[in-house]
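Review form for a predicted model. The reviewer records the input and the model, then writes brief findings.
Reviewer: anonymous (R2)
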Amino acid sequence: MPKFKVGDRVERIDPLVPPYMHIGVITRVIPATNGPDWVTEYDVDFGNQVIATLYETQLGLAKSP
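Model under review:
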């Protein structure tokens, strides 16, 4: 079962993330078909036409603004 859903505001968990890719919104969930939940992938829109596909382990739920 995916940890996040479309529309969730998330942040990247990594000390080397550029500022423009720190907070984004989930736009698509790509479930893991033959593996554990942590290999679920998400398309994250960071704004300014920057969209990245990231694993669940690279993301955390962002705090309210």
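Findings: The beta strands are 9-12, 23-30, 41-45, 51-55, 59-61.
Further findings: The CA atoms of residues 1 and 36 lie 9 Å apart.
Recommendation: see findings above.
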